[in-house]
Amino acid sequence: MPVTVSSRQHALNRQIQRLSRLFTRQESIIERLSWIRLILFLFFVVVVFVTARRFSTTVTVFTGLLCFCIFNLVAFFHRQRIRYKKRLKMWHRFKSSQAARMSCDWRNIPLRKIEDHLPTSHILADLDITGPQSLFHLIDMTITDKAGRRLVELLGRATPDLAVIKKNQRLVQELFLMPHFRNKLLRIFFLISSDLVHTDALLNWLKIKKPARLLTRMMPVAVFWVAINIALFIGFVLSIIPPYWILSLSFYTAFHLLSQRIINIFFEMIIQLDEELTKFRRALRVLENYPFLPGGALARLCRPFTSLRISPSRQLRRIKFLTAAVGLRMNPMMNMALNLVLPYDFICSYLAHRVREKMLNILPSWVDRFADFEVLFSLANFAYLNPEHVFPRIKTNNGNRAPVFQVRSLAHPLLPFQTRVSNDFCLTKPGETVIITGSNMSGKSTFLKTIGVNFCLAY
């Protein structure tokens, strides 16, 4: 039995209802566990107090440890239920947004504004490609600003490219036939969608020249002063020389303070890099580890993530580690201790510079391929939610054979499937003119827009 939009939405609604029941049940269990924890705490306090008054210290300690273990076991199950409730809430929101996309329930479909820096085109305005209740609003599942603009450019393309169309069709069809892979990424994309990854700003910021040459000159000076400080201090402790280390430490401190402006430039860079790239680290891990079909179109698209000697997720772990190292110095006492025994700030700054140089070489290709993948992923999700839609068959050399354009059951994708009207239409020869008549508000403009929007989807 073929899958229809109605049957798919019915299945989604059943899943949403089941998630709602599970969520309500978890709320009840969590409330009971909260009361149980409070009662156990008060009971155990009384038990330990009575035990301390009537029995030996050993018995009291043993009783206290037993009560502590029982309480923490209950607390562990309580936390597990709370985490499970959060997962249910996330899945409920995700499934509801999918159902909203099927029925064009615009209030429950997330809308992301990307009008800035978009190319000016009458197609975008006339056919409702962008803006609220638009084709972009309905399809968009992207998580980076670059992919959002690329999706709009693809939908609003005025001149078709047959090679690109066929390539995109193969990729979307391959993604459509990978439900497990899509579901894993859909969950990740949905979690990230509330916090857009600003890849363009990040790439532009990385390209700004940093004072790297000055930093490399300062590194050996810092190492020299730290070595002198340690040598003079050891000599003083061993009563070999007077406390000259105080003088050398003063010079090192002055040098370190004068270098802070340059050091902070590299620290801000690595923190910004970590904040943006961490958002889609989980998605990159899925792409690099998934066993794609060898030689498939999707495997070729994701080659930048799978062919590297060091995987993208490992590169991002290094950035995370370096960010944690920078975070250690936020504690004033830790900062002072680390920089006394090592040129710590200079080492971290130099490592940040090395990371920047490496990311400048590989990040643009990651971002570009990932943006392509996001666009195709959004289209594949749209295809899944509309199983009755078909991929167009485009012929470049039809000769004089009719028809030159033919559609069956063509409907407007921005109208709810329960109420929209489908039409057949055919142009038998080039230059043929068709006059559409009817009273006001009878659907003439909607029919014209239906053809235009479906052409955008086909291209």
Blueprint (SSEs and pairs):
Elements: H1 5-54, H2 57-103, H3 122-126, H4 135-139, H5 145-155, H6 162-176, H7 179-192, H8 199-207, H9 212-237, H10 245-258, H11 260-277, H12 281-289, H13 297-301, H14 303-306, H15 312-328, H16 332-341, H17 344-385, E1 405-410, E2 423-427, H18 444-458
Antiparallel strand pairs: 1-2
Helix pairs in contact: 1-2, 5-17, 6-17, 8-11, 8-17, 9-10, 9-17, 11-15, 11-17, 15-17
Share of helical residues: 55-70%
Low-confidence runs (pLDDT<50, min 5 residues)?
none
Distance between the termini: 30 Å
Summed up, the helix count is 18
Shape: flat
Reading side by side through the largest sheet, how are the strands ordered?
Answer: 1-2
Radius of gyration: 31 Å
Can you walk me through this structure?
By secondary structure, the chain is an all-alpha fold. It has a two-stranded antiparallel ribbon. α5 packs parallel to α17, α8 (199-207) runs antiparallel to α11 (260-277) and α11 (260-277) runs parallel beside α17. It contains 18 helices and 2 strands.
